[in-house]
# Entry
Amino acid sequence: MRRHPRAPRAGHREARSGILILGGGFAGATVARRLGRVGATLVSDENALLFTPMLPEVASGSIEPRHVVIPLRQTCPHVDLVLGEVTAINLGRRIVTVRNEVGELHYRYEQLVIALGAVPRTLPIPGLAEYGVGFKSFYDAVYLRDHVLRELELADNELTPERTAAHLGFVFVGAGYAGVEALAELHDLVRDALRHYPRLRDVPQRWVLVEAQDRILPAIPSRLGEYASELLARRGIEIHTGTRLDAVHADRVELAGGRQIATHTLVWSAGVAPHPLVARLDLPTDDRGHIRVDVTLRVEGHDNVWALGDIARVTNEATPGRTDPPTSQHAIRQARRLAGNLRATLEGRPLQPYRYRALGQVATLGRYRGIAEVLGLRVSGMLGWLITRTYHLYAMPLLTRRIRVLSDWTLSLFFRRDVVSYGGSEAAPALGAEPPTGMDDTATSR
Ligand SMILES: Cc1cc2nc3c(=O)[nH]c(=O)nc-3n(C[C@H](O)[C@H](O)[C@H](O)COP(=O)(O)OP(=O)(O)OC[C@H]3O[C@@H](n4cnc5c(N)ncnc54)[C@H](O)[C@@H]3O)c2cc1C
# Structure
């Protein structure tokens, strides 16, 4: 039954223990969990944490979608969870406004933790907002799987080679982890699915990876990046590095230099930008809009405001001269330090600096292929794939979820990939940084 939003009702509430955490992703949920019985109020627009490292496998169907979302009420049992959208922060009055179907709630805090993450970073490329699809949210992954399977169905019915080419053309822009892993997984899905489409078996497909920098996976050691490039090229994937996307149309994209590719699928994963709410706050930011924090993770110049994860620019004592990259690995470590410093603040103890040296980096390149750099050791192929999977499983917060994912993986060794659609919305989730709806400019001030 459809629920109708009730008329807005004003309400003032106190954050539990005076601590208010905004955002229930890797950063916010880990701070909440680490605070344990100290307790806190956690505001999130979803009641679960999305385990993004496994999102590409949701798109390809190797993992059940609900197994990569971790219920916040289960993983943070001592937290007071408020499901709603943060629409305003009044730093001077120490009040955060949250909107949900109940109405508008105002939360008073003593200590504020901002962990709202990032949104896809888009560029003013003609047609991108209209025809591009992101790869960041749960809905993106579900939509993309359904879309790709639908393109196969349509290609199977198409009458002209030109129109078939657009159904079987898949273009990914941005060759960071998310873009490369999503492409590799979806490529595997289509290869497996074609078994059921005898008419399409000999029809050419086009898989294209476009990257503005001069190599793919720029964040990992070049030898592993080269391995990834060679592997993808051997599978017939075209890689265009040092190349920009110029325009997107309903049935083709244009790359710099006038190259045209027939497609109905443009996946945009060319970086992220801090949550747009930051732009409305009077907080110190870097040139890309991330909140600047000191080495204890407190916002510069603000004694009771903290920030971490993808929304913040975090300096790390273990890596002088470099700020942390936007990864869950770093967000979790920052959260552990921040929770420790929050406890220290409440108990009047000195704060400790954040210091973390990453153990390594891992990525999968479809089934049975992966790359890993762990403690300086570089591994690729089947072993790289196993290390990547083991690492992701180890990083999952809830034991019951780990068991479910492990059972999905085990079953996928014995059964062929399922090619049924998840059956979500036919409209693509909106791409780009939209400010939260109904944001109140006047209330969002110091
Ligand atoms: C496809 C993909 C694959 C990735 N793979 C890896 C990987 O393999 N390894 C790795 O280390 N990192 C990976 N990352 C990066 C990783 O997901 C991020 O660095 C990490 O999620 C950052 O954590 P965060 O808590 O800062 O932000 P998020 O996890 O994005 O959390 C932000 C939270 O805030 C909530 N929120 C946002 N706006 C509002 C609002 N107005 N009101 C209330 N709540 C709000 C969101 O719903 C979300 O729960 C991947 C990312 C993607 C997209």
